Structure formats: C-alpha cells, structure tokens
Amino acid sequence: xxxxxxxxxxxxxxxxxxxxxxxxxxxxxxxxxxxxxxxxxxxxxxxxxxxxxxxxxxxxxxxxxxxxxxxxxxxxxxxxxxxxxxxxxxxxxxxxxxxxxxxxxxxxxxxxxxxxxxxxxxxxxxxxxxxxxxxxxxxxxxxxxxxxxxxxxxxxxxxxxxxxxxxxxxxxxxxxxxxxxxxxxxxxxxxxxxxxxxxxxxxxxxxxxxxxxxxxxxxxxxxxxxxxxxxxxxxxxxxxxxxxxxxxxxxxxxxxxxxxxxxxxxxxxxxxxxxxxxxxxxxxxxxxxxxxxxxxxxxxxxxxxxxxxxxxxxxxxxxxxxxxxxxxxxxxxxxxxxxxxxxxxxxxxxxxxx
Length: 354
Hints:
Layout: E1 3-6, E2 15-18, H1 22-65, H2 70-97, H3 106-139, H4 141-147, H5 150-168, H6 170-174, E3 175-180, E4 183-188, H7 195-231, H8 235-239, H9 244-268, H10 278-306, H11 308-352
Antiparallel strand pairs: 1-2, 3-4
Helix pairs in contact: 1-2, 1-10, 2-3, 2-5, 2-10, 3-4, 3-5, 3-7, 3-9, 7-9, 9-10, 10-11
Subcellular location: Cell membrane
GO cellular component, one term: nucleoplasm
InterPro entries: CML2, Formyl_rcpt-rel, GPCR_Rhodpsn, GPCR_Rhodpsn_7TM
C-alpha cells in the first residue's frame, strides 16, 4: 500500500507517492524538519523585516524624489517586484509556522504562489535588461544616445512585466488547496489521477523556471560583463562607472541566493525515480527557498552600501526632508505663538474695556 508525503518548496509542492513505511517518514520528519523550519522562518522573517522598509525607501526615492532616468526606472521596477513579493511573505511565514497548514483559502493560495514566481521572473529579467543596458551604453554610445530614451525604457518595462505574468500564470491554474491529515495544504494539482501527466507537467514547469528564469538570463549577464571587460580599452572607464559595482553586486547576490533553489528543484525531479535522497531534499528545499526569498531584501541594502551616488542622493533627500519638516514645525510653532499672543492681547483689551 502506498503512503503519501509532500514537499513544501514554496512554489511547486504537491503530493508524491513513495514505497516506504509511514514510520520512516515520521522519523525523518522529526530528525530534519524542526531545525529546518526554524531556520527557514528566520530567513523569511528577516526578508520581510528588511525588505518592506528597504524596498519602500528605494521606491520612494527613485519613483518620487529623483529625476526620472533610464537607470532609475530599472531599479524602481526591480524594487517594485521585490516589494510586492515581501508584502505577501507573512502568508508563507504563517504557513510554515503552522506546520504547513494553509487557512487562507484557495485564491490566496494561488495569488501567493503566483506573486512568488512573478517576483522571480521580473527580478531576473530586469537584472538582464540592466546588464544589456550597461553594455550598450558603454560600447555603443551613439546607438544608446539615439534609442536609450524614457519612452523606450517604459516599453521594455511593460514587456518585462507582461512576459513575467505570462510565464508565472500556470500557477493560477494549477494551484489548489487540499485537506490532508487535519491540515489544509497549498499545492499544485497537476492532475488528480494520471501520474504520467503529473510528472510531465512538473518537469515542464521546473525546467521552464530554470531555463527562462535562471540559465538564459545568467548567461546573458555573464556575456555582457565579460565583453565589457574585454572591449573597454581603459579599464578605469568600466570600474569607475557609477552603476557598475552596484549592478555587479546585485547580480552576484541573485546568483548566490537563487542557484541552490534551482539546483534542488531539478534534483527534486529525481525523487520520482528514487527516494534515496529524500531526506536531503526535505531539508534542502525549504532552506534554499528561504535563501531565494532573502534576495528580495538584499538589493536595497546593496544600493546603500555600494553605490556612492545612491548614498549621496539619499543623504541629500533625507536632509531636504528634515529641513522641510523642521521648517513646517518651526512655522507651526511660530504661528501658534503668534495666535496665543494675539489671544492674550485681545483678552487684555476686553478686560480694560469699561
């Protein structure tokens, strides 16, 4: 008789059949999931605590305070993608904290998973666009001056969001809730009966995530920066570029955070054929998912720590905001004092009036 277990990797979990006893499953879960859950929760919570204010600050300054340029539009939309995602993180934190019980209903199950995929694809696509933009701007200045306009940038941004929505949309169809062992789980219902269709759809979505959401963008970024290093005659031109080190750090952070997740997701496909590494995947998938989620709070920190231009603009904007606030407080205080003085004067006049 088949027993059932399920993985919770944040995106692609659903019920798998295995050929070993329930006692072995329970022992494995007691040995691994306690520490894994706590570490995962710590990563998710830290991503939320740092990601919401960090991305909100980037959105505020790049979207409302600073001059609109092509570069600020790229970083604005990258921050928007991360901000939308971290806003949904409390749902996933609650899911893990309640031992993978989903009480929020089917529609939020679909929306939460869709937002996670949308963030992944939008983030890596914007990083790819930023890399291509840097390459064109430095290597083909004439072409860049002619076509690197705000109008064209807005068109590219629209296309990036559209493609990310299309690629992530299958989650809205497949994601469902299921009552299992007094728990409601949020999982991918690829097919209720046919195992062949389940495996095929799981393989297709996993490899689509890997190729379109990781491999091709990563190769594009590596090629762009390699060509920049080779073709720029004066290396100082490259290294002193006001965006270069920030972009490079953001790309490296994406690679470090997302590589384990994609590797474990591909490794997970082998569980259909062999359960030998089942416990490794049980621990690796939640941890790699937590590391991937943590990437959403890293970008604003990297802007502040690395980009001197961002630091200068941030200090200037904060100084202006404080100056404006102090001016309002001072004006309010002066007005209040004048009003009180006027009231006192009128009261004196009334008392003196016969």
